[in-house]
Each structure stands twice: as C-alpha cells, then as structure tokens.
C-alpha cells in the first residue's frame, strides 16, 4: 500500500476536494482504496460518506489514533472518518507518542488489504499532521496562486518542526514530495503571472505534465468541483458539460500523480 498525505498548512486550498476526487478516481481505476480523514472539519468524510461509495469501520480516526484500532471492513473502498475529538489531541501531549505509533501501526496493519491510502490533514500543523508525514510515503500539496500562499511554500518545506525537509531528514527518509499543485486557478493576468513566478522559483516542486519543462499540473477554479463535493459526487460521473470540461483537465493531472506514486491505473 502506498500512502499519500494531502498537506498544506494553509486552509481552504483544496486538500479535501482534490483528495476526495483522487480517491474516487483511484477506486474507479480498480485500486483498493483507503481514506483516512485526520481533520476535525471532516469535509472529506462528509463528501465520501454521502457518496455511498466507501464503507466505514465502526470507529473514527481519533479512536484509531488514541486506542490503536486496526480492524478494517473487507471492502475495496474504506473511509476512516474524522470526528470532533481530533481538534483536542494537540492539547494532550502525553498522547502524542501513542498517536504517531498507532497511525503507523494502523497503516502497516492494513497495508496488505489496500493498494493506496489517502490521508487528509488539517491546516495548521500539529501531531496529526506530523504523524501522517512521519509514516506516509508521498506528499501532495495543493496551493492557491496568491502571494500569501506562495510565500507559505517556504514554511511547508522548511518549517523547523513540521517542514517536509525536516521530517524527511530526521523522521521519515522515504517521504517523497509528489509536488505542489496549484488549485482554483483563474484565467486572469494576475494568476498567470503568479503561476509563471512559481514555475521560475519552484519548478522542481511543481508536477510536470510532460518533458517540455513548461507544462505543470494544476486544477482550474470551477464551481462544479465545489458542487460535486457538496453532493458527494464523482466529477467523472456527472453528466453535465461543466463537469465533463472539468474532468478533461483534472484526469491527466490525476494520472500523473498516480504514475508518480508508482500506482498502476
Ligand atoms: N478547483 C476548485 N474550484 C472550485 N472550488 C473548489 C476547487 N477546489 C476546491 N474547491 C472548493 O473550495 C472549498 C475549499 O476546498 P477544500 O475544503 O478542499 O480545502 P482544504 O484545503 O481541504 O481546506 P481546509 O484546510 O479547511 O481543510 C470547498 O468548498 C471546495 O469544494
Ligand atoms: Mg480540508
């Protein structure tokens, strides 16, 4: 099982929306898919449960983190949903070692049951975020193309405690950054300029779509994406022109992400 962590300290950048749609895509491609929601906002849990596609075990993720639950239903798509309790874990430092150990043990324990696991995280790094990066294989970071978000890339990578480089160096050498994926991209001169600036400053962090060095994965801002999330729908299956147009853009990016994770889709 390959584990991908959706991570960005910045809120509202599309971690849950892209993670949810990526999970549907990987499951539809025939991969046994596990989704773990570590965010107390439970946005991805709500969408996935509403979709009716995934089966939930009889516990939520804080119970898995605190009590070391490991039994997972025998199904091709399973979600361990988030819960309110997740937000209080940071204030209980005596539980932190167990949380990191239990997440690692859980994922190791179910790894023969699934091909891929997606972990959705909360914004504002804490023990949940750190535990996910300590045990995951890959990181995908959706970002928005505004100056504040671009400035935040430094923290994503170099934060002294939770930065990708630090975690890779000290705690999880196998962690690989799939890349930074601009999301909610708008066809405005301002955003185009920001994308160019990003490509110049961080070309190696973006996800190349081909060998030209000029084309990078991104997802445009489209209302059908927010609608799909609210309805628990998989964009590829929505029979509307707007959804077809959106999927035509998103699918190639998801294919590249799957390839980078060495998944066969
Ligand atoms: N490309 C897009 N176009 C339009 N709406 C989008 C797009 N991507 C995400 N959204 C919507 O934007 C909102 C924020 O996205 P989402 O919840 O995925 O962000 P997040 O990074 O998970 O936020 P948080 O950090 O709070 O968990 C949601 O309503 C989502 O459906
Ligand atoms: Mg989210």
Please sum up the structure shown.
This protein is α/β, with parallel strands linked by helices.
Could you characterize what this model shows?
This protein is of the alpha/beta class and 265 residues long. The protein has one domain: Rossmann fold (3-Layer(aba) Sandwich), CATH 3.40.50.300. It has helices spanning 15-28, 43-51, 61-67, 96-110, 127-135, 147-158, 164-170, 189-202, 223-231, 241-260; strands spanning 2-6, 33-37, 77-80, 116-120, 138-143, 176-182. 43% of the residues are buried. Bound molecules: adenosine-5'-triphosphate and magnesium ion. Magnesium ion binds next to helix 1.
Rg calculated over all Cα atoms: 17 Å
Number of domains: 1
Extended strand count? 6
Named once each, the bound ligands are:
adenosine-5'-triphosphate, magnesium ion
Task: Report the β-strand fraction as a percent range.
Answer: 5-15%
Number of helices: 10
Write down the oligomeric state: single chain
CATH class: Alpha Beta
In one word, what is the shape? Answer: globular
Query: Terminal Cα separation, in Å?
Result: 14 Å
Let me know the CATH homologous superfamily: P-loop containing nucleotide triphosphate hydrolases
Widest β-sheet, arrangement of strands: 3-2-4-1-5-6
CATH topology: the name is: Rossmann fold
Estimate percent helicity. 40-55%
CATH level-two architecture: 3-Layer(aba) Sandwich
Structural class per helix/strand content?
Answer: alpha/beta
| Biggest sheet record | 6 strands, parallel
H/E order of the elements?
A: EHEHHEHEHEHHEHHH
- Average of pLDDT: 96
């Amino acid at each position: 099982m390959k584990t991908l962590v959706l991570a960005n300290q910045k809120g509202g950048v599309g971690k849950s929306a892209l993670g949810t749609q990526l999970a549907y895509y990987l499951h539809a491609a025939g991969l046994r898919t596990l989704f773990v929601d570590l965010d107390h906002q439970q946005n991805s849990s709500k969408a996935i449960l509403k979709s009716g596609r995934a089966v939930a075990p009889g516990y939520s993720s804080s119970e898995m983190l605190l009590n070391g639950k490991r039994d997972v239903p025998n199904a091709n798509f399973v979600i361990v949903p988030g819960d309110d309790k997740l937000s209080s874990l940071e204030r209980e430092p005596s539980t932190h070692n167990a949380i990191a150990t239990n997440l690692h043990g859980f994922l190791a324990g179910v790894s023969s049951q699934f091909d891929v696991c997606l972990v959705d995280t909360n914004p504002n790094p804490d023990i949940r975020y750190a535990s996910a990066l300590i045990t995951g294989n890959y990181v995908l970071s959706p970002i928005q193309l505004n100056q504040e978000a671009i400035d935040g890339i430094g923290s994503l990578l170099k934060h002294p405690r939770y930065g990708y480089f630090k975690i890779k160096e000290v705690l999880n050498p196998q962690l690989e950054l799939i890349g930074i994926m601009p999301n909610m991209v708008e066809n405005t001169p301002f955003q185009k300029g920001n994308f160019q600036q990003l490509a110049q400053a961080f070309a190696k962090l973006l996800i190349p779509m081909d060998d030209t060095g000029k084309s990078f994965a991104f997802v445009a801002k489209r209302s059908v994406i927010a609608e799909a999330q609210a309805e628990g729908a998989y964009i590829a299956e929505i029979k509307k022109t707007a959804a077809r147009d959106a999927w035509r853009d998103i699918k190639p990016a998801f294919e590249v992400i799957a390839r980078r994770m060495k998944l066969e889709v």
